[in-house]
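hey so u asked for the seq, here:
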Amino acid sequence: MELAGKTAVVTGGASGIGAALAAELAANDVSVVVGDLDEAGAHATAASIRDSGGAAAALRADASDSADIEALISLAGQEFSPVDIYIANAGVIGKPGLGTESDWDVILDVNLRAHIRAARLLVPQWQALGSGYFVSVASAAGLLTQLGAAGYAVSKHAAVGFAEWLAITYGDDGIGVSCVCPLGVETPLLQTIRDIDDPDVKLGASSIEHSAGVISAADVATVTVDAIRADRFMVLPHAELLEMYRHKGGDYDRWVSGMRRYQRTLRAP
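ran it, structure tokens below
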């Protein structure tokens, strides 16, 4: 995809990976609409882009709410042009352990259904045009797992699965899809996990930080924008993840046993 002159929506764009993605897209001459529940943060991201000479607008938006997604798409059309690129970045870690019914509703709404709702709105438009690009910011948890947090692990697996389905189903219609699966990234979300005094949460934080080096959100944004340009599906900001994923697929039982050992190690006093 030639990026210059395109218009993108980035959800969860007030900070972390979302803010870095918005900035990186703008640096490649993409007009950006930033959405986030943190209204001040979303506007700060957009203002920073404009201060650097880019084009950006912002809106308070719940990425899992269909009306708010429509509002982001509408704002893009009003301020710039119809959406060419949609980056479903907003995500939550959710409650630790097995969670309650309401806990599962929240995390599935944000980490999965938000992607489905955006695709429902955009795919018909993109099919008519013969072009469009959907980016699912998932997680290494969607390829491996997340210790301590069933909801996060399952919702990220589902996000990867949905991205795969989109790529297979609509690739021949000119619609590109990338699925971004980082390990540890230095973001406010990771800091929040570090600060929660819960054994399962601390286990999750330790597994993230010990699995590979913690990289910057800007690193993730760079490789993601490169993938959009190249129409590459799987985006692995941590090179180590590919080998981990191969080990899992090569011997699933051995991998499960190894993860149990790893979990015991992290829980040891």
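The two ends are 50 Å apart (CA to CA). The chain is about 55% helix and 15% strand.
lmk if thats what u needed
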